[in-house]
Write a structure and sequence with these properties.
The protein is an all-alpha fold. It has 15 helices and two strands.
């Protein structure tokens, strides 16, 4: 596992040397999506709690820094990103504290309800009104969308031709760091406790696991990584829109995670790459793009009912058994 991860990281770092700008941007989008899906899966796959509102923390990670730039003239990418991560984490702590009081479908509905409230505050301009006349003017100008320029990275303002390769390396570093931290969490006693809660909540309670507290911690950590992904995405796309807060974006994260396989740690990464790849392939159809994308997803889902990663693991296990029989 570590050898494979190290090889993959090395290959990712080489991509700016071999890929032209557009494929590099697509790969950057896929890596940001990977961080978001890995963060979601800590709550969904590991803890067994389906959230339909995690776009809230993704969007919060992007909007927070954008507001700092627009209203306080903050040009530092580091400040932009850290502020987004902090705010999304705090927001996840507050909303998660209320959501983890219920379980199963009620939890999913509650996360969806909070997401709709936050989305409405942005799409109706209530958040922008907090910044006075300038905020309201920006809302009327963009309908809730915000544009941000290329920010300085470590105090350096990179020209357009250099920015994408440099920022790609920032995204790769964030992806590797996020994957490593989440992998350690997954392998830790805390991760084992989360899986115990997922498999049998009653038994987990009887053996002394503080179920509600651990669910809340998982929710907060998940929101943190969604905020990180949202902040990176905001600078990558440089156009922050209310759609990034919409519950349909949450559904895309869930779909990509399920597509890759929730039970394997690498499943969300595989699913994120597959989702972005299918979406990019479907974009060839100007008319009927959504239909083409839907058909591709149906085909992949039927081909890999346990998720792509789960299907690959099953195939490898079958080959291993056949080799043993052949010997």
């Amino acid at each position: 596992m570590l050898v494979f991860a190290g090889t993959g990281s090395f290959v990712l770092l080489l991509m700016p040397l071999v890929l032209p700008p557009y494929p590099l941007i697509v790969l950057s989008h896929a890596l940001v999506f990977c961080i978001a899906c890995l963060g979601l899966n800590l709550l969904f796959g590991t803890t067994g709690m389906l959230s339909l509102g995690h776009a809230t923390y993704f969007g919060a990670g992007a909007y927070t820094g954008a507001f700092l730039y627009r209203f306080f003239d903050v040009n530092s990418f580091e400040v932009y990103l850290i502020s987004g991560v902090v705010f999304s984490t705090v927001l996840a702590a507050v909303i998660g504290f209320l959501c983890v009081r219920v379980t199963k479908i009620y939890f999913a509905i509650l996360t969806l309800a909070f997401a709709m409230v936050v989305h409405s505050l942005v799409i109706n301009g209530a958040i922008f009104r907090l910044f006075g006349g300038l905020g309201w003017a920006l809302y009327l100008l963009g309908g809730g969308a915000l544009y941000i320029p290329r920010l300085t990275i470590l105090g350096t303002e990179f020209p357009p031709g250099e920015f994408i390769p440099v920022f790609y390396n920032v995204i790769v570093a964030a992806f590797i760091g996020s994957a490593f931290v989440l992998w350690r969490i997954n392998r830790s006693p805390f991760g084992s406790a989360l899986r115990a809660i997922r498999d049998n909540e009653t038994r987990a309670t009887f053996i002394g696991i503080p179920v509600r507290h651990y669910r809340w911690y998982a929710f907060i950590l998940s929101g943190l990584f969604l905020g990180l992904a949202g902040g990176l995405y905001g600078q990558l796309a440089r156009q922050i829109t209310p759609e990034q807060l919409h519950w349909l974006f949450s559904a895309k994260l869930v779909l990509a995670t399920v597509l890759g396989g929730m039970q394997q740690f690498a499943g969300p990464v595989v699913g994120a790459f597959a989702f972005i790849g299918l979406d990019e392939f479907a974009s060839r159809w100007v008319v009927g793009r959504d239909m083409a994308f839907g058909v591709l997803l149906i085909v992949v889902t039927f081909a890999f009912p346990r998720g792509i990663a789960g299907g690959v693991m099953a195939i490898m296990e079958t080959v291993r058994k056949l080799r043993k029989l052949a010997q």
